[in-house]
Amino acid sequence: MVNDTNTQRTDALSLLVQAAAHSADCTAGLLIGGTQGDWQVIASYGAQPELALEDATEDFLRASISQDDLIVISQVTGQIVPILFQRFMQFCDGFLVGIAVRAADHGLLGVLLVSSADPLQRLSAAQTYALQTHGALFSSMITADGVPAAYNDDPLIERLRLLESVVVNAKDAILITEAEPIDRPGPRIVYCNPAFLATTGFESAEVIGMTPRILHSEDTSRATLDTIRAALEKWQPIEVELINERKDGSKFWVQLSIVPVANERGWFTHWVSVQRDISERKEAERLVRQAQADRDAKVALETRLLERERIEEELSYAAFHDDLTSLHNRAYLMSRLLGMFNQDGPSHVPAATVLFLDLDRFKFVNDSLGHRAGDHLLKVVARRLESCIREDDIFARVGGDEFAILLAGEGQASLATDLAQRIVGQLSLPVVIDEQNIFTSCSLGIVTADHTHQSPEDLLRDADVAMYAAKKRGRGRWTIFDASMRKAAVDALMMQNALKQAIARDEFSVVYQPIYNVRTGEISGVEALVRWLHPELGHVPPDVFISVAEDNGVIHELGHWVMRQACAELQRWKQEFSSLQLHLNVNVSGTELSRPGYAAQVSQILAATGVAARELQIEITESVFLHEPDAIASVLESVRALGIRVALDDFGTGYSSLGYIDRYPLDAIKIDRSFVSRMMSFDRSDAIVRSILSLGRTLNLDITAEGVETLAQLQRLKEMDCPFVQGFLFSPPVRAEEVTTLLRAWTAR
Length: 749
Hints:
Blueprint: H1 2-23, E1 28-33, E2 40-45, H2 55-64, E3 70-72, H3 73-77, H4 83-89, E4 95-102, E5 108-116, H5 125-141, H6 156-167, E6 173-178, E7 189-192, H7 194-200, H8 204-207, H9 222-233, E8 238-245, E9 251-262, E10 268-277, H10 279-320, E11 328-329, H11 330-341, E12 352-359, H12 362-369, H13 371-386, E13 394-397, E14 402-408, H14 413-427, E15 431-433, E16 436-438, E17 442-448, H15 456-472, E18 478-480, H16 483-502, E19 508-517, E20 523-534, E21 538-540, H17 542-552, H18 554-576, E22 583-587, H19 590-594, H20 598-609, E23 616-620, H21 629-641, E24 645-651, H22 657-663, E25 668-671, H23 673-678, H24 683-699, E26 702-705, H25 711-719, E27 724-725, H26 736-747
Parallel strand pairs: 11-13, 17-18, 20-22, 22-23, 23-24, 24-25, 25-26, 26-27
Antiparallel strand pairs: 1-2, 1-5, 3-4, 4-5, 6-7, 6-10, 8-9, 9-10, 12-14, 12-17, 13-14, 15-16, 19-20, 19-27, 20-21
Helix pairs in contact: 1-5, 5-6, 12-13, 16-17, 17-18, 18-20
């Protein structure tokens, strides 16, 4: 019977060991005690009960807990853990706590050990008090020889007394509540220590019998309360931080830790709640956060300022630099020039020389190889030109394929010509694009500021004028500006404006020069020629205004008007002189042929006027093949497919006349007037004319000799068997009415 009672008490101690371990979130517990020098395992949980206790281990424990009631042994021993502890914990590294079990005289009866596998685990304040409470419970349940003692049949009051004895002098604010109910209204408070009353301002009578809800306020986190509730429902220890409210309504932050305390039967009887006022720490944390926020705001402000500075630098760079070549742009050049003009007042003449250059035939590269190739060419040109200039020179891209170089200082004019020559030489070298050697060149205009230049715009205008003057002289040329160029530019501008209004004002007219059959002497056709009578400029020669019309695009409207007028006249002559086989020659420029839909435009004119396609012959010069020759050849094929004939005018004066005859679709050639005039004096010219006639007969091409002005020339051409002639010997270009008179005279014979 006695053995059964001892067994029950041992089981109760084991359950209490389990409860102690649970309160500290530990997985094993061991109660050791007995007479001095003969300590043994009294009760255990999650450990081997048959562990043998060595004297050295007892001595270690007595020495470690001699001064303290609770010690974290794993922190004290470091790497040196007694072998018993390793067997108890079943691992070398972990968390191990020892709690003194003392008699009434403070003598050491034994030690409660609890452990877990987490070496970083720590005890909350509530867990510390709970373990100390369990140590006090064990003090009342074992004797000095380690034998379980008899316990009170109604131990609840005794247990509460023991709990109070542990926490009464604690500096932390501690509440002890009943274990249940967890749901509302919650477990009632059965004890509060003096520190709790001092912290909260309540009286003991105002607290006992109430629930911890008396500390809650509207600032208490609902989520934190839910976390506490979830832990209590599982009878688990919990530690949180939350805001409580004192009796006077003031708020304060606490670190709240709660653990359950069980009896020897393993039933949870109470909750121990420890509250540590952490308001100062929270305020310090708030200040740290505020300081960090201030630092972050300062850093953000500095970052924004740096970013703004970077953006301003980028915008400033973009405002004065060209994206493609990274050179200065027109705005920068104008800014520098403006500063030079304003340096010493409005009458000051700046010491500035400008070179203005434009790439020759750059559009051809863009159109044939694409804009990517054009961009690559511009970048290569920029780098080559940079190698030609000095460090102080201002080099800018001012337009699509236009560049300008500013030389500041006196006496730069002579240096400018040397620089222009170097630039021409640099650009004569090929540029490799898509494995092709592309040859380019540039035209340069040079101008030095003088009293006629009142602004940067004036200076660049004259540099641009000089550049166009150089371009007219041929590719790869440079020219120094003089005042006559400005007048020529102004005249050209006036002519451009006048040309745009001339058609609407009916200032153009068409004249016709008859073409004669040498063998029969009859008029076989006419060549239509346009004339311009301006009310102020008077008669403007075609060789002056045709090139201007090509430049500003008026040539398309003008060419259409001339062809329609001439075809209408031919149709009237055919109706009146039906016995004659007349044909019409109309000059067409390469600019007209390059415009999409040219063949369709001619077809519409023929349909509108009633002229047959075989009766129309367009005259072209060799220059039409200089730009996009394949495209021009395709247009000519389309024209010939309609039945219209194509004649090569001014034959022999171009670069490769024979090559054009061989490569392109032609029906006739016209011998240039220069050969006709020279053949009477120079055997070489005579031989050339004979060769052209022979070539025409061989290739079945109609041949017309232009510029026949004397009977001797006519006689020589008859001897050479030239089929057609035209010139002042027969008739100058005349109005349609005079051609009608000539035709009537011929038919009257």
